[in-house]
Amino acid sequence: MARSAFLDPSEVRAVYRRRAKRYDFTANLYYLIGFRETHFRRAAVAALALNAGDTVVEIGCGTGLNCSLLQRAIGPNGRIVGVDLAAEMLTVARARIQKEGWRNVDLVESSAAAFEFPAGVDGVLSTFALTLEPDYAEVRQRAASALTPGKRFVLLDLRLPQNWLRYLAPLFVLIVQPFAVSLEVAKRRPWESVARYFTNPTYRALYFGFAYIATGEAPWPHGQSPREMKQL
User: Fold this and answer.
1) What's the confidence (pLDDT) of residue 86?
2) Domain presence at residue 2
3) What is the span of the domain harbouring residue 114?
4) What's 141's domain CATH number?
5) Can you give the pTM of this predicted structure?
6) pLDDT on residue 216
7) How many domains does the chain have?
């Protein structure tokens, strides 16, 4: 049977429906090859520069692995909106939320492209998820419109490196295929649209170029500076 290219969102959903109960355990197995996933997630959340009381949207929240990190940043008066296309992943996330007693988390079953962002968001985060969305550029554009000016969009994801390690692409894809990553998916370049829709874009390579953190800030209205906006 031929391997799936995972270009159809229904294929991706099917993978994560099957893996939901074991997702946390299997994700941690990548530590065996030196991939410090929790460290990278912590760095991505820090890059959001959130404040107490902020509202943050997480695209592809999965089982809620980032929730504790986000809670530390926004506190009990903040709000987390977690979005995922697989109901089974959200079931695991909901159990985690109930166990921790968090009352400021809303979960939404939706693809990234179909999700309607609330207005006045203080941060948008996606970790190891948005590359799986074919319409990732549209998601960036809508996130930029929803974010409060000056607030950040942060993307942590996988990619094919541009150095000599690119020759290891077949092995890389084989390792991450259990998480619906194919060579076609890995060739996507979602970080490029960060610079298109956000200001002050940054890019930081991780794990020998096989992963990265990209950030951008929601633009201020044309002709107005941050100081002028604060005075309104």
Assistant:
1) 97
2) no
3) 9-231
4) 3.40.50.150
5) 0.92
6) 97
7) 1
Of the candidates 120, 196, 194, 124, the residue with the CA atom closest to the CA atom of residue 159: 194
Using an 8 Å Cβ cutoff, are 216 and 195 in contact? yes
Q: Which residues contact 191 (CB under 8 A, 6 or more apart)?
A: 155, 157, 159, 203, 212, 214
State the Cα–Cα distance between residues 20 and 4, nearest whole angstrom. Answer: 19
Distance CA 11, CA 189 (A): 20
DSSP strands (E only) in 2-161 = 55-59, 79-84, 105-109, 121-127, 147-158
Q: Where are the alpha helices (DSSP H) in 75-168?
A: 87-100, 136-146
CA–CA separation, 11 vs 179, rounded Å?
Answer: 11
Would 1 be classed as within a structural domain?
Answer: no
DSSP, residue by residue, 187-206? T--TTHHHHHHSEEEEEEEE
pLDDT tens for 131-156 read: 999 999 999 999 999 999 999 999 99
